Amino acid sequence: MPTTKASAIWNGDLKNGNGTMKMDSGSYEGPYTFASRFEDGEGTNPEELIGAAHAGCFSMALSLELSEAGYEPESIDTSAEVTFEVVDGGPAITGIKLITEANVPDIDNDTFQQFAEGAKEGCPVSKALAGTDITLDATLL
């Protein structure tokens, strides 16, 4: 498997500085600042990118598990709510809530929930974030 790369540049002090994060693939490059991370400023932040990565990874893992079991998903729409707060004197990611809606013909809800839980536990990003409380709200359409 290939190694993926991303990079970030930061200029100045924390409060007044600014930076750019980018993917070496060229698929994304965007600004980030203290305000975009700790307030409601313009730009992105590391937590938002972690949320996007987690939502994408979970959706792919769920698609794989369903397909391998003979269920062909028509669509899987996932978002991730990343909780970022001050804990023990410093900022920390304290939780991630995955919210997914999937259109999967010919599957009952209990079976779907089992696959969704398995995808949450098994996706590589969930494994990388194992020290974080990850919850799941899965809806079968």
Task: Explain what you see.
The chain has helices at about 35-40, 45-70, 110-120, 125-130; strands spanning about 5-10, 20-25, 30-35, 75-85, 90-105, 135-140. The chain has two domains: about 5-40; about 45-140, GMP Synthetase, Chain A, domain 3 (2-Layer Sandwich), CATH 3.30.300.20. It has four helices and six strands; from the N terminus they run βββααββααβ. The strands form two sheets. The chain has a three-stranded antiparallel beta sheet with strand order 1-2-3. It has a three-stranded mixed beta sheet with strand order 4-5-6, covered by helices on one side. It has about 140 residues and is α+β, with helices and mostly antiparallel strands.
Topology (elements, then pairings):
Blueprint: E1 6-11, E2 18-23, E3 29-33, H1 34-38, H2 46-68, E4 75-87, E5 90-103, H3 109-122, H4 124-128, E6 133-140
Parallel strand pairs: 5-6
Antiparallel strand pairs: 1-2, 2-3, 4-5
Helical residue percent? 25-40%
Q: What is the level-2 CATH architecture name of the largest domain?
A: 2-Layer Sandwich
Main sheet summary: 3 strands, antiparallel
What structural category do the secondary elements indicate? alpha+beta
Rg (C-alpha, Å)? 17 Å
What is the name of the CATH superfamily of the largest domain? K homology (KH) domain
CATH class membership of the largest domain: Alpha Beta
CATH topology tier name of the largest domain? GMP Synthetase, Chain A, domain 3
User: What proportion strand?
Assistant: 35-45%
Mean pLDDT: 95
Q: Quickly count the domains.
A: 2
Low-confidence stretches: none
Put simply, the count of helices is: 4
Q: What overall form do the CA principal axes indicate? A: elongated
Secondary structure tally: strands: 6
Q: In order across it, which strands form the biggest sheet?
A: 1-2-3
Distance between the termini: 34 Å
The helix/strand order is: EEEHHEEHHE
